[in-house]
Amino acid sequence: MKYYSTNNHSIKASLHDAIVKGLAPDKGLYMPERIPALPKAFFKNIANMSLQEISFVVANTLFNDDIDSAVLKDIVYDTLNFPIPLVHVCDNKYSLELFHGPTLAFKDVGARFMARMLGHFNSLDNTQEEVNVLVATSGDTGSAVANGFLGVPGVHVYVLYPHGKVSKIQEAQFTTLGRNITAIAVNGTFDDCQALVKSAFMDKELNDAMKLTSANSINVARFLPQMFYYFFAYAELAKREQPLDNIVVAVPSGNFGNICAALIGKAMGLPIKRFIAANNRNDIFFKYLLTGSYEPRQSIPTIANAMDVGNPSNFARILDLYGNSHDAICRDISGCSYTDEQIAQTIKQTYDNVGYLLDPHGAVAYRSLEEQLKDDETGIFVETAHPAKFKSTVEHIIGAPVEVPERLAAFMRGEKRFVKMASAFSQFKKFLLAESAR
Ligand SMILES: *Cc1c(COP(=O)(O)O)cnc(C)c1O
Questions:
Q1: Residue 409: its H or E element
Q2: DSSP letter at 91?
Q3: How far is CA 368 from CA 40, 341, 381, in A?
Q4: Are 35 and 267 in contact, with CB atoms under 8 Å apart?
Q5: pLDDT above 70 (res 199)
Q6: What burial letters (b/e) apply to 356-386, b meaning 16+ CB within 10 Å?
Q7: How far is ligand 1, taken at its centre, from the CA of residue 129, in Å?
Q8: pLDDT value at residue 276
């Protein structure tokens, strides 16, 4: 199957090229040319399948033209060799905890899958040229990608992050690794980091000098595997003999890669009735739903900082998926926007009344269900990060200590190393050219 550019459907690439290049040559995002349907029988039997089994069927349905099934199976099973439980919170609301991977981020799955796919496709190239992965992060992407790619032969990762705007634990997760991982502290915002990465992909001289790709959710191998969880969540409800015809899923959204993958899952046949795209004060998408016009802005810093995005890159994919129809988008997705005070209040109340500790991102999704779920609907809210990643914020809100899992504590003991960078592209380009000459 080919992947076309959201800017121009006649610009097409193979899966291999879409993964290695990241962005289409006209700056569009790659989309699968066809959205294959899963057989009805799959859903009848899904309650008896493991996460790995479910994910392999979904992945094989999407990618089987382009990669050997046995190789794909190894990639999927190796990507998902950790538990991802679904926790029952209270009546008619389920927490889908996606943070049980190596860096306790939901992005671990996409990053690990992409690292393995890129490693596979690169090994088929006989040029032996190193691939350089550029990734802009507001915190979680950097840690997941750095750890997902750590030690993958033939790949070097550059993580760009806004200096002083990510939590200490997050920073430790990508600055202490060394080996094939370089951290770059940018004097600016996440949007500045994202702009540097985009400019690098567009720069001819750089691309002639080195093989560049992206591990942000613009990359198809990063964002598509995120749909696995939603099939798994459906299976968990089926296992618990819950009603399956009115499922509503609330997704904390920043760059909209996660929810976009889920929407493609729905287009493949996953019976989710509707989605809520949950936002903090960065409400560009919510405004779009309300008004029909999309107006990107500078991002505003919030306590749910992985969602501080002023121009969500996957918006282009959502528009494309729904044929640019605002009505069609509004039928499947509703939105919300909460202030830091509302997020904090939700964390405190849920901790006190329900005994469940939300992180600031999951809290946005939880609150949207509280406000929007109808009586006949079954709500799932996505928990995208472990609360300990935002330890001081969460402790301050609940007035109680938050235990840091050993996996996170281990990162804090490493030595942080990073390169400082201004937000001007010229400096970044010079740095990369010097790296390519190493
Ligand atoms: C990345 C991230 C999000 C947003 O996901 P998108 O796919 O960019 O919409 C939400 N919560 C956390 C904790 C994240 O790390």
A1: helix 406-412
A2: T
A3: 31, 15, 9
A4: yes
A5: yes
A6: bbbbbbbbbbbbbbeebbeeebbbbbbbbbb
A7: 31
A8: 98
107 is catalytic: yes
Indicate whether 191 pLDDT > 80. yes
Residue 106 alpha carbon to ligand 1 centre in Å: 8
Q: Is 39 exposed, middle or buried (0-12, 13-18, 19+ CB in 10 A)?
A: exposed
As beta bridge partners, residue 97 has 383
pLDDT at 91 over 70: no
Helices (H) and strands (E) in the chain, counts: 20, 14
CA of 203 to the centre of ligand 1 (A): 28
pLDDT tens for residues 264-276?
999 999 999 999 9
- Per-residue pLDDT of 68-86, as tens digits, reads 999 999 999 999 998 777 8
Question: Distances in Å between the alpha carbon of 103 and those of 78, 98, 411?
Answer: 16, 11, 9
Host H or E run for residue 349: helix 340-353
Percent above pLDDT 70 for the chain: 100
**For residues 434 and 279, what is the distance between their CA atoms, to the nearest angstrom?**
39
Average pLDDT, the chain: 94
Query: Which phi and psi angles does 49 have, rounded to 5°?
Result: -110, 150
Ligand 1 site residues (CB inside 6 A) read 105, 107, 140-141, 217, 252-258, 306-307, 361, 384-385
Please, what is the angle between helix 140-149 and helix 168-175, to 10°?
30
Helix/strand/coil for 255: coil
Residue to substitute in 96, 100, 107, 394 for testing ligand 1 pocket (most ligand atoms within 8 angstroms of CB):
107
Spacing, Cα 304 to ligand 1 middle (Å) = 9
Minimum CA distance residue for ligand 1 atom 8: 255
Q: Which of 21, 93, 107, 198 is catalytic?
A: 107
Question: What pLDDT digit, counting tens, does each position of 353-368 carry?
Answer: 999 999 999 999 999 9
Could you report the per-residue pLDDT of 109-128, keeping only the tens digit for each?
999 999 999 989 988 887 77
Can you give the pTM of this predicted structure?
Answer: 0.93
Say how far apart CA 213 and CA 197 lie, in whole Å.
9
Question: Closest Cα partner for 368 from 252, 199, 288?
Answer: 252
